[in-house]
TrEMBL record:
GO CC annotation terms, alphabetical: plasma membrane
Keywords, alphabetical: Cell membrane, Membrane, Transmembrane, Transmembrane helix, Transport
Subcellular location, record wording: Cell membrane
Family: Belongs to the 4-toluene sulfonate uptake permease (TSUP) (TC 2.A.102) family.
Pfam family, one: TauE
UniProt superkingdom: Bacteria
Entry keyword annotation includes Magnesium: no
Transmembrane stretches, start-end: 29-60, 72-90, 96-115, 162-180, 186-209, 221-239
The protein, known as: Probable membrane transporter protein
Amino acid sequence: MSTGATILVVCAVLAGALTQRATGLGFALVAAPFLVVIAGPETGVSLGNTLSAMLCAVVLARTWRHTWWRQAAALAVPAAIAVPLGALVVHSLPAGPLLVLVGAMGMAAVAMVVVSGRRSPLRGRAGLVTAGSLSGFMNVTAGVGGPMVTAYALSQGWSREVFVPTVQVYLLFLNVVSVATKGLPVLAPGEWALCSGALLVGVVAGELVNRRLTPEAGRRFIIAVALAGGAAAVIRGAVEW
């Protein structure tokens, strides 16, 4: 990559890492579009998956004490089952309409939970399986698995302290599977070092933001990032359509 492109990638990675440390998700929303535009679809997506896996591991190392491991594993199982179906759909349907549909689904799920609260249908074992399956499907089709998991977590009343590490376990699993399937991107050692450094700086900055957020402000931040992820997929789909 050129010097200018490298600087843009580093800034995007830093901003994405900050957002994800503060809210539990958002790296794919903030950084991935820049990575794809600058490095190309294949390398950009693979780089995004790799950096996201690294970021999840770093954030988890800082927050693991509050992780609900059983919930994370329970979400990962239906997600893993839904990934092949999503991959099949990607190769069978036009990208534009599919992205619009998937993004709208994510936004609707989050909005539904915010409005209905404890009456949300995403409760119990059935809600967990539904959220995990749709998240895995949405992740492989549009790269936005976060909104559906956020909807489930909100319906369960998870605190931000629980949500952040638990979602990292789930996203780490999805990204490791993706990297194992597609392979690592090819970057120069210096570019790897800069991206890794940007991740660490973003995590530190995100921790500072996280400490200043009240529980209610943190909840609104998480909802905003989840809705933005769905909206980004809808906009991208509409442009391609």
